[in-house]
């Protein structure tokens, strides 16, 4: 034990002595008093508002700039056409309640199909603005711009407000919508595609609605004994363009039926079909009163399915119709 203590003592003698900490340098006292500080000549009476800007912001912003803000990339927001479809149907009801002739010439299905195509035209315009339009969208733009586009006031207001926007946080959003397939729909309806059918418009569904109205019209025509206008409508196939007008029949119905000039001679002849010969023309007697034969005014009405001729009743036809109803 004594030998170990002696070795430790010899080892400590070889080491340098420990250094003692030095006292800090005393801080000199100021040579002036607080009353000698320069005071402002005109103290400000306006309170400066508090800001939460970082202290380093003023070091990087030049005079006149708005500052450094973090801007993210533009976000793509999917379009939702559920409200637009309901708006188009309500606008059709409003127009039909004021104009009965419009409701008889333009069905709701054709009116809706026309506005649905205009909605996809607006989507194609926004895609072309950002340089992401597909070949089908460019063709749709050329097709729609080749005609005079007239839409309802409510639908026009909706489409004018449909576009890119900036939220309250400064983020920019682009309105996009995935296109349907080449057949005009979004595939089989299941848990993966039901969202597309609920928020977007399938053109094929709108076309089939128009075809359903055509079939219903033909069924009502077959149930009647006679039809006012002998029009042969050829139903297009499933993949046939809806704007294709069927070729007219080879033998047309005569544009005008010869009728007696005297109202008391005989009632109106039965309506003729295609292929029946016209009735013989009756010659007025010298003592008969000459009446001006009213020229029927042919009115052509254009709908989305093509041209259809419509003819209003003349005064002579209306008179005979009232006599027939009174006797029955």
List the helices and strands and how they pair.
Blueprint: H1 2-14, H2 57-60, E1 75-78, H3 82-98, H4 100-105, H5 108-129, H6 135-145, H7 153-161, E2 165-166, E3 172-176, H8 194-199, H9 203-223, E4 299-303, E5 306-310, H10 315-327
Parallel strand pairs: 1-3
Antiparallel strand pairs: 2-3, 4-5
Helix pairs in contact: 3-5, 3-7, 5-6, 5-9
In short:
This protein is mostly helical and 328 residues long. It has ten helices and five strands.
Structure, described:
By secondary structure, the protein is mainly alpha-helical. It has a domain of 135 residues. 37% of the residues lie in helices and 6% in strands. The chain is built from ten helices and five strands, in the order ααβαααααββααββα. A three-stranded mixed beta sheet has the order 1-3-2. Helix 3 packs across helix 5, helix 5 packs across helix 6 and helix 5 runs antiparallel to helix 9. The longest helix has 22 residues. It starts with a helix and ends with a helix. About 10% of the residues have low confidence.
